[in-house]
Amino acid sequence: MRTLCLLALSAVYAAAQTSGWNYSYIYNFQGGASGAAPFGLVLGPNGTVYGYLGIGSSGCCNGGIFQLSPPSTPGGVWTETVLYEFEGGNDGSFPVGSPVIGPNGSIYGATRTGGLSTSQCVGCGTVFQLTPPAAPGGQWTETVLYRFQGPPDADFPDTALAIGTDGSLYGTTYEGGSKSPPVNGNGTVYQVSPPSARGTNWKETVIRSFSQSGRAGANPTAGVAVGAGGVLYGSTTDGYSVGSIFSLTPPAAPGAVWKIELIRNFSTTGTMAIGPDGKVYGISGNAGTEFAFQLTPPASPGGNWTEVILHKFAPGPDGWDIVSSPVLDGNGNVYCTTTMGGASQSGVIFQLVPPANLGGSWTENLLYSFAKNDGGGQVILAPNGGLYGTSSFGVYNQGAVYELRPPSTPQF
Fold it and tell me: Using one digit for the tens of pLDDT, what is the confidence trace for 15-42?
């Protein structure tokens, strides 16, 4: 475990924007012991930020996990700690999506490869847990909870996990599952459940195998979101139509089949967000024809969901070409990033504000225009009401974590 501090070079990097929101790097990676190519942030306790490294401190490409601890005084120096570096082989390699934090402070995630090599795949991927030390400054402990085996099991996970109320972990794979057709399956939703008794292993279950001939479509590229009652919401990209938005309701009895419901015949970009009122938010469409949507659940089971288009994105100054997932704050605002558009046509960070009156129009605010070809990465909510995200560049061109602060809000 390595700890580093970056001093004056955590300076502000500014680009053209008119919203009054303030963009600055809070940490610049240097390569070497610091690692490089950060992505996939998550906010932990006490303002701590965790994320993945594309390149670990050894310079190898198996990836790693880092921690950024906030300064003791506003505007001070953030401290980086490299918590773990994946080894490949039986261990995982190439973490995907973003890590998630469990109620015990453990970090959970999935790796695209590593783990078992079977007749179906070589290094089919893993689900892992990183447990914090018993005493401050100690070593974090990595445990591989499950190694995928390939069809009819899932394989090669490529989305972030979601945590259910019972501690189960849920994710998707683009391939894997049922062998027919095709040979490697059309994707899955899987569950990895915590041990039922002390000393026993976590259990993996494929709760849905998709088929190109099925009405729900196939090949999910986004993760699932957990709603009320443990219902999962996700989307597929291919198959019966142009993909679908679906829900999976857990069975009333253990071991029974999850019930799938087709909500809409279109797919989403990234994992959807769920509001406290059960409304589902997402992005759909192809580059240049994307739209943000809201789906309101029916008043009674089996009824129709109500769809509202929040904003249609168009090439030009407006942001477009969205590849990240939307984020919802406590006021109902939606945040996301684009890879194109804005002042430099390098992507923007935008905010969608709900109407003051029921039935009114949502408002899009362009909060920041990237000056380099650096847009599109995932953002998360910061404690001060702003956003954190990752840059491919930074002072050393090894990547950085940035903060986007609301107007008149002090730096964390």
Answer: 334 468 999 999 999 999 999 999 999 9
- Alpha carbons 267 and 280: distance in angstroms, whole number: 13
Contact 244, 226 (CB under 8 A): no
Cα-Cα-Cα-Cα dihedral sign, residues 58, 59, 65, 67: positive
| Overall pTM surpassing 0.85 (yes/no) | yes
Q: What tokens were used for 8? A: 């004056």
Q: Are 224 and 190 in contact (CB under 8 A)?
A: no
Residue with tokens 């009405």: 215
Strands 169-173 and 22-28: unpaired
Residues 6 or more apart in contact with residue 362 via CB below 8 angstroms: 292, 310, 311, 352, 353, 354, 355
Handedness of CA 262, 265, 271, 277 (dihedral sign): negative
Over the stretch 51-71, which tens digit does the pLDDT of each residue have? 999 998 777 789 999 999 999
Distance CA 308, CA 264 (A): 12
Q: How far apart are CA 42 and CA 320, in angstroms?
A: 24
Q: How many residues does the chain have?
A: 412
